[in-house]
Amino acid sequence: MNTAPAESILAQWFRRIWNEGDASAIDELCTPDVVSHGLNGDLCGPRVWREQFYEPMRSAFSKVFVTILSEIQQGEFIMARLEATMVLRSTGQEVTMPGFSHTRVVNGRFAEAWDVWDFLGVLEKMELLPPASFGMAVTGHLAAHQALAK
């Protein structure tokens, strides 16, 4: 008898949409009025999220693979600590990025999501920003910050 727990909707999301590249699962796993709070501000609806976040990410990275490091469900909320491994399409460079997702599920579908990813760290790994750029910026030691302060 198989007693393995069923795959959570969050695990399905990352497996199907990101790891397998199945964009059709977006509409299946989200409510029509889903709201995603993230780097691009609040994106409302599956179509908007797909066009303004998913498709640009898929264009920039030839591979995106998300691993769930830990996951907790409490009532209608699922929280997870994540790690994404991505390959930059333009250079072939592989980068990893830690992240966190807090989602609200209604009737077995995502209704709202708050995602936090270390894109600053990715930009530093891609050498588009200097290492420890946030610390340099807040202490006034980042060259771009110094120019703005004048």
- What string, H for helix and E for strand, traces the elements in order? HHEEHEEEEHHH
Question: Radius of gyration, Cα only, in angstroms?
Answer: 17 Å
Largest sheet: 6 strands, mixed
What's the mean pLDDT score?
Answer: 91
Classified by CATH, the class is Alpha Beta
| Lateral strand order in the biggest sheet | 2-1-6-5-4-3
What is the count of DSSP helices, taking H or I runs of 4+ residues?
6
**How many domains comprise the coordinates?**
1
**Category by helix and strand content:** alpha+beta
Write down the CATH topology. Answer: Nuclear Transport Factor 2, Chain: A
Please give the alpha-carbon distance between the first and last residues: 70 Å
What is the strand content? Answer: 35-45%
Any guess at the CATH architecture? Roll
- Regions with pLDDT < 50 over 5+ consecutive residues? none
The number of distinct β-strands equals 6
Helix content bin: 25-40%
Principal-axes geometry comes out as globular
